[in-house]
Amino acid sequence: MTEPQHILVTGGAGFIGSHAVDVLMRLGHCVTVFDNLSTGYLANLEQWEANPRFRFIHADIAADLTDAFNRAVLGFGRITRIAHFAAQTAVPLSMDDPVADIGANVTGLVRVLEYARRNKVAKVFFASSSAIYDDDAPVPVSETSSARPSSPYGINKLTGEFYLDYYARLNGLTFTALRFMNVYGPRQDPKSWYSGVISIFLDRAVTGQPITIFDDGEQTRDFVYVTDVAEAVTHALLTGAGHNAVINIGTGVEVTINTLARTILSLAGSASPVRHEPARAGDIRRSVTTMDQAEALLAFRPRVNLQAGLQATLTWLRQEKSRAPSRSGSAA
Ligand SMILES: NC(=O)c1ccc[n+]([C@@H]2O[C@H](COP(=O)([O-])OP(=O)(O)OC[C@H]3O[C@@H](n4cnc5c(N)ncnc54)[C@H](O)[C@@H]3O)[C@@H](O)[C@H]2O)c1
Q1: What are 257-290's pLDDT values in tens digits?
Q2: Does this model's pTM top 0.85?
Q3: Which of 41, 60, 89 to mutate to test the pocket of ligand 1 (most atoms within 8 A of CB)?
Q4: Ligand 1 centre and the CA of 271: distance in Å?
Q5: Does the annotation count 133 as an active-site position?
Q6: Where are the domains of the chain?
């Protein structure tokens, strides 16, 4: 695609969304970000702040977005594509307050889809999750594995996929939904209680604090590097690839938490002690995806292996710590 597009990225100040913004901006598109900065940071977008093709609008997707959409169109004209990342992303919070989770994770998506329908947006990307799968589904999970979410967060992601299918069938909307496995990389917030295991382990290794492994550490996850995810998202968003499809995005590589901890300690040259605590309720034992659909529909093959991704994340974390106040841009 050569023609510049006006692309709306909801949740673009967040971890994954900001990497998608980077790709879209580098490709020469105009990008508007809607974000309420609840877990995102303006610092994740500071590289584009002064660029005339970039605009940040403080907006809550659970609330009326009329004003935000009008301002976006005033800035760069008709919105042609939407990447929808904005969400309440903490699974435990969705259990504590399922009603609030619906606001951000279902109502927010439907607002975006209604806008897309009325304004003939060419394509919508939706950030879904492996949390939609049945914890007891045999691994590796594929897109046809049984969906039986164990949290309101997972229920709402699955509901989102049904909305996309409905809008596609009844209104001709074009979409791609990607079910992310465990995404990691620079800008994942280790300070967040709900952050991914990698950002927490790296932070603890670098600061010499103990690393806590729940259970025996032989539980597994499929860790996919954030720039690979951003490439998959932008490829689906900008082309006909993954047309009206729901696709798992991971690496197909199953890594135990013990191996992860050892690798991180060795890369960081850290002597942090490792402690084990009892398994947490709701933690699944094994998680890894098949790659068939991602390869067939998106030609997706992860480029960054775990070792290289961990090294890059470690380098970023050390830089962040040396310029500590930079994330004070958050309005969280
Ligand atoms: N990180 C992962 O491993 C992972 C796995 C599966 C799915 N996902 C999905 O990918 C998307 C991005 O996740 P992330 O890891 O980058 O999380 P993140 O918390 O860094 O990003 C979410 C962004 O959305 C914004 N946001 C939250 N609620 C909002 C609201 N009501 N209105 C406007 N903005 C709002 C936040 O401020 C933040 O910038 C989410 O939809 C998440 O559910 C992430």
Answers
A1: 999 999 999 999 999 999 999 988 778 899 999 9
A2: yes
A3: 89
A4: 32
A5: no
A6: 6-183+224-251+288-303
